[in-house]
Task: structure prediction
Amino acid sequence: MKGIREIRHRIKSIKNTAKITRAMQLVSASKMKKAQDKALGGRPYATLFAEIAHSLSSHLDRPGNPLLESRPIEHRGVLIVTTDRGLCGPLNHNITRQISQMESSTKFIAIGKKATQYLARTGKNMIASFSITDHVSYKDVRTITTFLVEQFLAKNIDTVEVLYPSLVNTAIQEPVIRNLLPIKNFERELEFLYRRMGVNIASLPKDDRFMLMEPSKKALVDKLPLTFFNQSIFQILLEMKASEHSARMVAMKNATDNAESIVSDLTLEYNKARQASITQEIIEIAASQQASKEQSA
Result:
């Protein structure tokens, strides 16, 4: 009977766990829909921005713009983008495991508590950490990008690379590393965005339109690289939030399914144990009756 009570207690405990994971799954599903809409809605804008930048790239004065100038790389600057909370499957692990392969001279900037904790635990050279809410605002992004640009212009870092989980679909979030500063080739960025949109860049016609630039070509091209960098970081953070809620929804669904499967197995085990107990009681009663008959005889 003790075994039956233990099984009954385990069934009750796992059912309670399944209720929690089911609730978390529903919450994540709601957040996932909103985050995916924002990320997918931002891709056409990011692609159009890249198209404009690519069309104007021939007019950019590279020697006069420090964001476009390449220099010898002594210290890589890598922005690590993770979540603040766990329970989202291997999402954060897929990001942080790539850090061990980077040079010891690399300087890291963290977004998200998971990245901050990992860098601190492993003794990496972390020069700053940031945190963002589920509602990514451009104002928050400007705080991050301003720091990155200042570090790049001061030559504390020679590149700005971003390692983040990019949304492929609800079940797949792909770790991606992109080199955003210095901006070497707008066409490469455009090809990356086209692949995300499922468009073949080779099939697109060349843009040979006449362009009239206002207020002036110089004013436009001076601001274009910085604006492109800010917008790229903003889109990356939207992708990260969509990836986070998608991964957490899938993880909680798997946890709920596993809990229900365990409950089913335990219920079968409980029924078998209960049937065996009842059978044993019947055997004991029958044996007792037989013994009474023998004694009376």
About this structure: The beta strands are 77-81, 107-111, 126-130, 160-167, 173-181. The mean pLDDT is 84.
